[in-house]
Amino acid sequence: MNSSTTPSDTVLMTHKNGVATITLNRPKQLNSFNEDMHVALAAALDEVVANEQIRAVIFTGAGKGFCAGQDLGNRDPRKQKYDLGQTIIDFYNPLMKRLKNLGKPTVAVVNGVAAGAGVGIALACDIVLCADKAKFAMAFGKIGLVPDSGLTWALVQLVGLARAKALVLTNATLSAEQALEYGLVWRVYEADRLMDEATKLATSLAHGPALGTELTIKALNQATSNSLEEQLELEAEYQREAGYSDDYKEGVTAFLEKRPAVFYKDKQ
Ligand code: T3D
User: Fold this and answer.
1) Pairwise CA distance, residues 113 & 67, whole Å
2) What is the pLDDT of residue 153?
3) What pLDDT, on a 0 to 100 scale, did the predictor assign at position 8?
4) On the chain, which terminus has fewer CB atoms closer than 10 Å, C or N?
5) What pTM did the predictor assign?
6) Hey, which of 10, 30, 89 would you mutate to test ligand 1's pocket, going by the most ligand atoms within 8 Å of its Cβ?
7) CA angle, 72 then 68 then 57, to 5°
8) Bridge partners, 12 (sequence order)
9) Which residue CA neighbors atom 22 of ligand 1 most closely?
10) Helix 117-124 and helix 93-100, axial crossing angle in degrees, nearest 10
11) pLDDT at res. 261
12) Contact indicator for 164, 156 with CB cutoff of 8 Å
């Protein structure tokens, strides 16, 4: 296993068998974001993109929480006023865009509570798994803010406008079971099985056809804003690209030779 820590240790990263595991590491603050953690996470994502051996990514949190959004210990409005729009522009929006456009499949492993931007980060991942004790707290309304980190968009896409409005206007906290029922998460596991199941899933994604996986994620992401006609054209374009790939050659050859396809070999 390769492992690296960022200079501040607020984000940890290991990688093995094609899977990078990125752990938000401020457990005393429920892994809420300060500037240091934003910078460290951006550096970890740079490595994910640059390292060809990394083919899938797990995001999780250290300790009992996943991520409680912005560190409110860094915000004391009794002392000063903050331009929160600027933090969103400088840190949260670039993070959301990077997560959506990483080019490698992402799995959020929500080990405990996710709140505020922490929910946005989980929902920006391609597949969300959570522990049976996990919670999803909308949180923003309680401190007079507007949902950010793409949540006003993601919630409407995932649960529909009526439920999205009710969730955020009532500052709802969803249990794992409710999050599953609402379609926010793919699977719920007992806490002690969660990471094993996530690793199995991410390892299978890492061993899939990288280009086909990347183009599939792009096509599905674009479907939310495209018309059917635009989407059909996009599918043709992406299929052309996938059809010229070595992975397609290997996939069909394996089928014809009645053997499993091998798209990626672990480094010995
Ligand atoms: O500011 C900008 O730049 C704009 C961007 C905004 C993005 C956002 O995410 S805004 C939303 C910010 N987040 C919140 O409002 C969530 C605040 N936290 C909570 O509501 C609750 O802590 C939770 C629902 C997340 C969890 O509740 P619970 O009862 O399980 O845990 P707890 O006891 O409240 O928290 C445990 C510890 O974590 C506690 O510290 P202590 O007392 O043991 O020393 C608590 O202060 C700390 N903690 C939790 N959330 C945060 C935090 N510390 C700093 N910032 C937090 N967001």
Assistant:
1) 7
2) 97
3) 75
4) C
5) 0.96
6) 30
7) 135
8) 5, 23
9) 68
10) 20
11) 97
12) yes
Q: How far is the CA of 234 from the centre of ligand 1 (A)?
A: 42
For the chain, percent of residues with pLDDT exceeding 90 = 95
Residues 6 or more apart whose Cβ sits within 8 Å of residue 183: 158, 159
Taking the C-alpha atoms of residue 238 and residue 119, their distance in angstroms, rounded to an integer, is: 30
pLDDT at 265: 87
Distance 113 CA to ligand 1 centre (A): 10
Q: Burial, 114: exposed, middle or buried (Cβ in 10 Å; 0-12, 13-18, 19+)?
A: buried
Q: What is the DSSP string of 17-71?
A: TTEEEEEE--GGGTT-B-HHHHHHHHHHHHHHHH-TT--EEEEEESTTEEE-SB-
Q: How far is the CA of 22 from the centre of ligand 1 (A)?
A: 21
What residues flank ligand 1, with Cβ below 6 Å? Answer: 29-30, 32, 68-73, 75, 84, 87-88, 113, 115-117, 137, 139-140, 143, 145, 148
Ligand 1 atom nearest to 64, measured from its CA: 30
Query: Which residues of the chain are modeled with pLDDT < 70?
Result: 1-7, 267-268
Give the containing element (helix H, strand E) for 239.
helix 228-243
Task: Tell me which residue has its CA closest to atom 9 in ligand 1.
Answer: 69
Q: What is the distance between the alpha carbons of residues 260 and 36, in angstroms, rounded to a whole number? A: 44
pLDDT of residue 27: 98
Q: What is the pLDDT of residue 4?
A: 58
Structure-token pair, residue 175:
């249990």
CA 156 – ligand 1 centroid, Å: 24
